[in-house]
Amino acid sequence: MKDFFSHINKAFENKVRLGVMSILMVNDWYDFNGFKELLGLTDGNLASHLAKLEKIEFITVKKEFVGKKTKTSYQATKEGKLAFKNHLQALETLIKGTKK
Amino acid sequence: MKDFFSHINKAFENKVRLGVMSILMVNDWYDFNGFKELLGLTDGNLASHLAKLEKIEFITVKKEFVGKKTKTSYQATKEGKLAFKNHLQALETLIKGTKK
DNA sequence: AATAAATACTTTGTACTACAAAGTAAATAA
DNA sequence: TTATTTACTTTGTAGTACAAAGTATTTATT
After folding, report:
1. Which positions in chain A have a beta carbon within 8 angstroms of at least one beta carbon in chain B?
2. Are A43 and A51 in contact (CB under 8 A)?
């Protein structure tokens, strides 16, 4: 693939990951159940997408007890935020700069 | 999937189709070889994505001779343009409207 | 003590997708 | 006649998305 796509990030081609990252751009921490409800996903599907974002270090995880219940929360990393911004920028460029 | 994603269009989750549609938003007609060069794709890959966009009626095809050579050109349909605009609008909303 | 419910997963299986590479057909050029 | 171009189609492989079911741990209910 070419220059044309150099900042279009494969990680953000999927709508679940796009949703997760969007949420984490404006919320410092967001928990598993929060994503699940807001995005309307099954546990497995959500978990697999979160795992992918974690693996490439675009998000980090925190586990804690709130009262007596477990809670797993996620935060975008610096690199994740940067990659997401670049992706959005690339989309804008793509849409605006292709007049022959 | 939820409301949250209602205008995120599966057709535009792929970067090739995103590129093709972006180009067709600002160029009335664009030909096969033009896409191939600009996007840096193999024939088969390009053809398959164009076929997908044609199947869902987001683009239309025109075949002609220019001099002695064949030329196949593509144009976005009204529905294609609308869907693409809605997709972009949805992305914007997604990115801006998720503060808890 | 036994059963049920919640949380945050993992595992499994299926259907679909992206892509390169090779093959095809029809026309033109050397 | 052989090579080249155009615009594909076919084939095969590796990867992806997703639901559903299963798991471990803890807490709540009977």
Report:
1. 1-5, 8, 10, 13-15, 18-19, 22-23, 25-27, 30, 34, 38-41, 88, 91, 94-96, 98-100
2. no
